[in-house]
Amino acid sequence: MSEGRQTNLAKSVGRQSPDRYFASLFAPPETRDAFLLLNAYDLRLGQIEARGEDVYPALIRLAWWRDQLAALAAGEVRGEPLLADIRRRIPAAHYKYWSALAEAHMDRVEGMDGGTVWPALRAAAQPLLGEKTAARIVGAAALASRNAHRSPTRRQWMMTWHILTGRGA
Q1: What is the pLDDT of residues 1-27, one digit of tens each?
Q2: CA–CA gap between residue 104 and residue 48 (Å, rounded)
Q3: Which of 14, 16, 42, 103 has its CA 20 to 30 A from that of 8?
Q4: InterPro entries in the record, alphabetically (predicted)?
Q5: What does each C-alpha distance from 104 to 110, 117, 140, 152, 167 come to in angstroms?
Q6: Domain count of the chain?
Q7: What's this model's pTM, rounded to 2 decimal places?
Q8: 66/106 Cα distance (integer angstroms)
Q9: Closest residue by Cα to residue 110 from 54, 43, 65
């Protein structure tokens, strides 16, 4: 990933979710870009919402993202810069976890989400960060999202405590 694209990705994640960007700073430097890319992908999926009662257009869009990962594994990239970044930065063996994340968002759109998006994000982060680091960093971001009503400083303190100790604050 070019340095300019990498900077744009970090800025994009930071704008959409300052808590996730803050959590990414705790990722090991050699995997931070891949973790930011995973967050950018998850945030893009999270923007896909059902319009009124009709969930099918949103499900089709989420299925498109899921199917594009299979196309990436076959070497096909079609015009979407985020997919091109995924192909360059993420090993094809990890795509199944990223596809599961799209499936979790499909459950969310259908109203069947029993809290499956955060565990799917954690599962996708594990091959990048390792099990313990993924649990702490993704757990911290999930903790922050559950405490969105608190001040940003309080959320950052809670996230730091969770990452360092593995416990909620």
Answers
A1: 556 656 788 999 999 999 999 999 999
A2: 12
A3: 103
A4: Squ/phyt_synthse (IPR002060)
A5: 10, 5, 19, 27, 25
A6: 1
A7: 0.89
A8: 10
A9: 54
